[in-house]
## 1
Amino acid sequence: MKKFFTKRWGQTPSVGVSLIPLLVLALLLVLVIRAFGSDSIMGGSQIALLSAASVCALLSVGLYGCKWAVLENEIVENIRSSASAIIILLLIGSIAGTWMVSGVVPTLICYGLEVLHPSWFLAASCLICAGVSLITGSSWTTIATIGVALMGIGRAMEFSEGWVAGAIISGAYFGDKLSLLSDTTVLASSTCEVPVFEHIRYMLYTTIPSMVIALVVFLIASLMHASSGAGDVALYAQALHSTFHITPWLLLVPVATGLLIWRKLPALVTLFLATLLAALALPIFQPEVMHTLAGGADEGFLMGFKGVLTACFGSTALDTGVAEVNDLVATRGMAGMMNTIWLILCAMCFGGVMTGSGMLSSLTSLFLRWVRRAAGTVAATVGAGLCFNLITADQYISIILTGRLFKGLFRERGLEPRLLSRAVEDSATVTSVLVPWNSCGMTQATVLGVATFTYLPYCIFNYVSPLMSIFVALLGYKITKKR
């Protein structure tokens, strides 16, 4: 024991010492999750990260003589590298608010609900949740709103709760994983230093096949089930119609956004223009909603100006007459992204001291002993993403730690950063909901009223996705090595 803690000035920390900050972080996060539940991201997780970073700094300075300036420089460099991601997250909050109150998202939801039919209920539920999650960028919002409604419909049709919850979660995480508005998508791409559009396009090679498999399974399960009714989907569509002016003209906003993405414009430019288009549509198609956002006190230009800006940066709440739909159309704007940004900054501090102290490279050396080929490297990344979801109990921290841990290894192996970012999303993002004590698993089980272990076998997309990532890597498809 004495030898274990002997000072080794200038040497790389041992694996045993390097694991101590991770164990401290895991212990603190367990306590935070138990104390705060789904609100852990509102401060508790951030304090846990800073505390673990402090432990790492004390060990590296006290045992290995690391200079504080080195750790500080790494923290600053980490935060600098995340600056563009933070701006993107702010624009995501803005576009989420403007797309909702302008009627773009409600229009897409109303048209999506029309495809629901008992004979393919599970597959349709998966597709609807995928579409809503894709346009909102949030699996949590999708599950807590449309997902809750579909659970009620599924129970009325006498479907197994596990099957319905599995279809909902599969679709929600498909959209979350591929959406330009998703904070996990931006976080994974920025952590691995990959342009977000390139990251999304590269994920299609594993995500689309995984979704096809899931849809086939859900379709077969639906056809084998004797359904007993179509449910009350019309209630939610009617609530949206009564609150918003639903028109095909609003589809021009997502179509134009798709064209901007196809033209490969920078993400910041695309998100800004998408927000601007929705902001222009707000006074044209939803004047009553804009008047409500403005508080009804002002008239004319100032009313419109206040309503548009409120949609961009602030919280919005509209009364549709149906509580579940009220939750769906509620947005938080830029202000709603601040907890995620706060978490990213604290995670970058933790990652900075782990990198500057040499502890991250020490942990990476564990994988060098067994990893020789690209497929093995991807498999190790996928395994680490799952392990961090089990250990840290937080999706965001798992993404950051996995990306930081393997960035140097992928560079050393001559593998593209986009392969790393895809493997991180194929594992850390989609498996978080399968862990009962993870913030995602705990939240979705509570929201849907279905235990994690009950829906776990039916989340087809969530466990096919990491397997597909390894399978595609074994095939070597679209994997090129740098010379």
Note: The CA atoms of residues 294 and 385 lie 44 Å apart.
## 2
Amino acid sequence: MKEIKIAVLSGDGIGPEIVAQAVKAVDAVAVKFGYQVTYTHALVGATAIDAVGDPYPEETHEVCMAADAVLFGAIGDPRFDNMPNAKVRPEQGLLAMRKKLGLYANLRPVNTFETLLHRSPLRYDLVEGADFLCVRELTGGLYFGRPQGRSEDGNTAYDTCVYTRTEIERICRLGFEYATKRRKKLTVVDKANVLATSRLWRETVQAMAPSYPDVEVEYMFVDNAAMKIIQQPRHFDVVVTENMFGDILTDEASVITGSLGLLPSASIGTGTSLFEPIHGSYPQAAGKNIANPIATILSAAMMFEYAFSDMEAGAAIRRAVDLSIAQNVVTEDIAPAGVTPRSTTEVGDFIAANI
């Protein structure tokens, strides 16, 4: 019996509903592959602000540090959207969690499901066979740069983009390593014709490249990359980029699959790794039992693969997800015309039963 400890941070909006389905999948894997799982639930985001006034309380951080992995739902609450001067915001909890856990790398696989290619807004012949991995730097750049703020009169605002060579080396080393395990091609996305930080990125990667002679390296400006992801998604194998570019490009890439509700992610670094869907808290659907849980369930698959090095367990989850899509046991966002959509819990139950 393999004992594992999982911190469960359901968060806001649809978070509790979709995480509950991922827990069902984990429980099914535990039975099938001989795991004994201990779950510890903790507060994060708007729910944590409501309870204790802090979007990432110290108690939550301690729970995460004591766990082998973190299964995370979503952060965000519309109450804060029109409060520009709010001293505490839910999203600050996500940034604090990444920083305090040392989660410097966000891994977002982008691949298509054969039975859902018709749902993509892109042509079938463009998206068929698309399969690439985005490696996004997660703890540097504009989101964390200092100074940051506004002038006293409120008419000027400023953010600072800061990167060190050490930060760039560690994220690009991951990019190279994943490329060696895939199709041996690494695309470095930057804006080196304008930004000094991008020029440091490019210079650093050029110095690292000789250590990975089997990997083909290409450099691409972010605006070109944004177009090419849509025009030729099969062009990419592993993409590595800085924080804000990665945030935007991976959300753009999500349309290739036809639904944000299908894409998982992993955040890894120096502390406990975290696994989450790439979509947000979708407050309009909260409590309605209609949200797509597949991205969260696939995040659980990534958890077994990356945190516990159990590819078999991850594959078992993926097979059950493939079956649910093939048999149209899916929520309304991806249900074909004429097929009655299933609820969040029905999809979760089907996948767990088929694991």
Note: Residues 59 and 274 are 17 Å apart (CA to CA).
## 3
Amino acid sequence: MKSQYSVSLSRIVQELDLRVVYAADRYDTAQITSSDPNRCGLQLAGFYSYFDAARPQILGKAENAYLLQLSDEARRESLERFFSSGISVLIICHELTPMPECLELASAHQVNILCTNADTSEFMADLTGILNIHLAPRITMHGVLVEVHGEGLLITGDSGIGKSETALELVKRGHKLIADDAVEIKRTARTTLIGAAPPMIRYYMEVRGIGIIDTRNIFGIGAVKPACKLDLVVDLRVWSKDNPYDKDRMGLEQEYQEILGVKMPRTTIPVLPGRNLAVILEIAAINHRQKKMGYNAAQTLLEKHDNAIDEDIGWLSL
């Protein structure tokens, strides 16, 4: 899926420690919009069907060896066709020395040439990983994101229901705050969502009656985290006997909420005076981790109950 986002070429150069061999006139404003780097061997051989010039072009040992075995005239013709195809950046791996024709044509067609000493396959994996993060589909949701026992909990619910106060209590109990009020969520892989706070409000919380507090300054650097993976959505609802969440008290049925095309497990927690939501969310995080590891307490109890009926054993003897 094509991304509507972009990342500056200069940032990728900095993050991957690339060497600039030739900087085009618009190097400082050049943007990468595709997360799929392309090994340019087929194009150098003349095949341009299904070719996307917006993709970062990678040249490794195989492509370099192919060019070296061509005659001077054929090599120049191949490179001329390649550099005039609309590409914006060519990255040369293994610290290979760029051919004179490359530098000449890069200047003529204003193509950035970069270099790395990394192996081609290793570099492409690193580049793809970074681009998947920078160009990932994203959405901003109202809620609070905390990491509890290693599980990323996205707390949602109506304004004023107690999301921030619950997160504050969790932070006091040693867990980590990622975002309060606005959560930026990116889909970095097919089933992976990463949540973070907008830079402007990172580590700040709004506590009704007090105002804005700086969680990092109050509780220390160990109480916050810049981002984390989403594992479970916890939806806080004001308790009502007519709400459907009271129908499955054992927790046998798993709820889901779709976020950016990913089915995210969700649990609905009814809010009542006197309920310790921080403790309940700690248990929700641990219970969810157990389910991921293959243990479901409700299912185990149900199986014991069914076995007792089959064997005509009273439930008290279980």
Note: The chain is about 30% helix and 30% strand.
## 4
Amino acid sequence: MGKSDTYSKDLMQDNDYFADIVNNVLFQGREFVHPNELRELDPTELTIVEELVEESISIQKYRDVLKQISIREDDKTIYVIIGIENQTDIHYAMPVKNLLYDAIRYAKQVDQKTREYKKKETKGILVPKLTSTEFLSGWRKKDKLQPVITITVYYGTKKWDGPRSLHEMLDDSIKEPVLRLIPDYKLHLLEPAGITSWDTYKSDIGLLFQAIAVSDEKNGINNLVKEKSRKFCHVDNKIVNAINFYTNAKIPINKNEEGKVMDVCYAVKTAEAGNMIETCVGLKHSLEETLEYVLSKFVDDKDITEEYVIAEYNYFFEKKNN
């Protein structure tokens, strides 16, 4: 497993982040899904495709993350299976990839229901007898499938220029009436660069996507941290590590006593001040000159004090001369 898979899967295992993504991608930010109502599912998709030559071919696919969610609507609870596929790069066959995952999960539901009935029979539990037409599939007329939805989470900074539906992958020469005979399959895509409002994100995962969205801009992340200072003062270390990984930022990890959250604002500005001081030392500026220059850039900043600059100057001075 590569580093990208490790970071993205670790983030998506978090129910708060998972629910936040589902609510924003599928429900325009409305809180239909709650973190405590998520249930982890086995991400391995396994099914058997029966070929005409009567040979069985086993197809095994590994989803990134798969969970069951419950949605309450009109005093009823609806259960939906949600899969998330993480993409660092643009995948030009993504509609087909996700369609295959969903189809396999539907096939697995049919298979599981058939096995469930057989298991009950072996235990002597009375189950409705299959009709002659039901016998062919092992699926009873009254049985129902759980909906399966796949979300593609894209961590790249480039605009997604890949297809967003199955129809977009077809040759342009295919027109009506043939096109309307082909069922379409649309991507549910989270593309940071395409998000225009971040107000509906409730968790720190929104900060990661915001950072990705501005990472190609000059001082984009630094400006974002300053603009959203209240949100960036208490950020999960997992998010900070992910920001560093996906955007090549170099935010110093400054763990608190619990080692789980950090003040990104403090880390960014002290890193900025430290770079200034190191440059001054490299240019052989005196301590007095360095103090005047750095403090003029951080006027009225309670963290970048004279004592801080002196300590950092001495550190870089000793480092340079040793």
Note: The beta strands are 39-40, 44-50, 56-62, 65-73, 76-87, 148-154, 188-190, 235-236, 261-262.
